[in-house]
């Protein structure tokens, strides 16, 4: 019951962060359309957070506009009079254009209204990245501090890496931190990983198709930091002897079976679920002790291990606000560049779509299971710039599609017919719904897999 409560608590926190983040992004995006529409004297009939087919969770009419919250968390919308949108209000479009309608406004005004949501999301992302940089700075584990080296998991070993290797370079360039290695392999197409092994420098070529395997595994099963097992704090240890388990203890053996690293400890203790074991530990004083412990049914000992940040130490860079502006802007567009690169790799077949595309379930799962403001605002900033990019794509039913038609009108001097706009909107909606259904189906398949 306790474990179930923890799991549901984690899921609930993830869901709450997702709803709050998505609500901020969608509300501000639609507010961009709303304010510019009102600025150009357009009537806005509805302003909704989330979609509301058949019914709304809440709604209230203020003046000419109905404000509400829908029940399908896939986005939101503003319904502007005289505009062919997802409402598909064809009857209203048959009437003569009225001065307060979108279709009666000059093309340049309609273009501004269409791209306003994207502009707001870009501005939000830039502001958030700048503030995040200023408040939290940059904290990372420098690659040169990883003196123990890396633990090579199954994919790492497949590539030729070995546990204990120290990663020196990616395509000849020293990485800032080990954390960038799987990202660079999948997004930058790294060809050679240079390591130090037993005092020798070795160049390991990345096998063809390896990036696709790594992406399919969601960057897992590759490499992690090699760490000794050091007790950071004792939480719920069930002792079977007189010697206590203490903060600073380094575990080196279990029931006489020696181990040195955390992954060896994890593998070994699985054999002793709900059993008594004796750990050999080295105290912080240098003394050796034998500690008797009863493992629970999940093979848990009941202590918190010292984290990788404490073992290796982190580098923290703090920025003044003036310094945070260019750094934050750089982070924003670096994030966008990585996303675009990922999409390109899907279309070129370097990574499989079924391993990369995700729905709201994937987005929600990206948030941590505990409430962390730095992670929350960072993910919100990332999703904001991605939302801006996706919306500006020249696809009917998206802002970019409407903007494209308006640009064509401004260049050619000819406005697309209402019938054409109706069909384009229908095609766009079908495409978007199909993509959403595909992404949702993949997420459900991943859960059961």
Description:
The structure is a single chain. The chain has 449 residues and is of the alpha+beta class. The protein has three domains: 2-134 and 379-448, no CATH class; 143-225, Pdz3 Domain (Roll); 229-303, Pdz3 Domain (Roll), CATH 2.30.42. It has helices at 2-39, 90-94, 107-136, 154-159, 180-188, 210-216, 262-269, 308-312, 321-348, 353-356, 360-365, 373-392, 399-412, 418-448, and strands spanning 44-51, 58-62, 65-69, 72-80, 138-140, 150-152, 166-170, 192-197, 200-205, 223-225, 229-234, 250-254, 257-258, 276-282, 288-294, 303-305, 315-317. The strands form five sheets. Strands 11, 12, 13, 14, 15 and 16 form a six-stranded antiparallel beta sheet that branches. The longest helix has 38 residues, at 2-39. The radius of gyration is 27 Å and the shape is elongated. The model is unreliable at 1-7 (pLDDT under 50).
State the low-pLDDT regions, or none.
1-7
Query: Whole-number average pLDDT?
Result: 87
- Estimate the global geometry from the Cα principal axes: elongated
DSSP summary, beta strand count: 17
Alpha-carbon Rg, integer: 27 Å
Helical coverage, percent range: 40-55%
What fraction strand?
15-25%
Most strands sheet:
6 strands, antiparallel
Task: Tell me the number of structural domains.
Answer: 3
Through-space gap between termini: 24 Å
- By helix and strand content, what is the structural category? alpha+beta
């Amino acid at each position: 019951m306790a474990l179930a409560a923890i799991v549901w608590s984690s899921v609930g926190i993830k869901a709450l962060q997702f709803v709050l983040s998505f609500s901020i992004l969608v509300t501000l995006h639609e507010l961009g359309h709303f304010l510019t529409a009102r600025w150009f004297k357009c009537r806005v009939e509805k302003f909704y957070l989330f979609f509301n087919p058949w019914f709304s969770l809440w709604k209230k009419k203020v003046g000419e506009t109905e404000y509400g919250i829908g029940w399908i968390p896939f986005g939101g919308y503003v319904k502007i009079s005289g505009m062919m949108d997802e409402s598909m209000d064809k009857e209203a479009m048959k009437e003569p254009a009225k001065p307060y309608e979108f279709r009666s406004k000059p093309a340049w005004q309609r273009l501004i209204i269409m791209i306003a949501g994207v502009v707001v999301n870009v501005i939000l992302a830039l502001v958030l990245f700048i503030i995040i940089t200023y408040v939290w700075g940059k904290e990372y584990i420098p690659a040169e501090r990883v003196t123990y080296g890396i633990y090579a998991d199954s994919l790492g070993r497949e590539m030729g890496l070995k546990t204990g290797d120290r990663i020196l370079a990616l395509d000849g360039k020293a990485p800032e931190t080990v954390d960038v290695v799987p990202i660079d392999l999948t997004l930058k197409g790294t060809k050679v990983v240079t390591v130090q092994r037993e005092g020798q420098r070795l160049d390991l070529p990345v096998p063809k198709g390896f990036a696709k395997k790594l992406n399919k595994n969601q960057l897992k099963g590759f490499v992690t930091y090699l760490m000794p097992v050091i007790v950071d704090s004792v939480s719920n240890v069930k002792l079977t002897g007189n010697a206590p388990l203490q903060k600073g203890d380094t575990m080196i053996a279990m029931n006489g079976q020696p181990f040195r690293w955390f992954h060896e400890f994890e593998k070994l203790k699985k054999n002793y679920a709900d059993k008594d074991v004796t750990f050999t530990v080295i105290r912080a004083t240098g003394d050796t002790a034998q500690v008797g412990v009863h493992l629970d049914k999940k093979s848990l000992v009941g202590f918190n291990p010292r984290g990788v940040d404490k073992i290796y130490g982190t580098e923290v860079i703090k920025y003044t606000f003036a310094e945070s502006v260019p750094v934050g802007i750089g982070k924003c567009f670096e994030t966008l560049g990585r996303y675009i690169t990922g999409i390109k790799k899907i279309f070129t077949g370097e990574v499989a779509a079924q391993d990369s595309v995700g729905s709201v379930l994937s987005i929600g799962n990206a948030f941590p299971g505990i409430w962390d403001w730095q992670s929350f605002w960072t993910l919100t900033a990332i999703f904001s710039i991605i939302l801006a990019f996706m919306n500006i794509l020249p696809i009917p039913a998206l802002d970019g599609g409407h903007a494209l038609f308006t640009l064509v009108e401004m260049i050619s001097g000819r406005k697309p017919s209402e019938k054409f706009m109706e069909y384009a909107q229908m095609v766009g909606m079908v495409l978007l719904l199909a993509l959403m259904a595909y992404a949702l189906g993949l997420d459900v398949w991943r859960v059961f897999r």
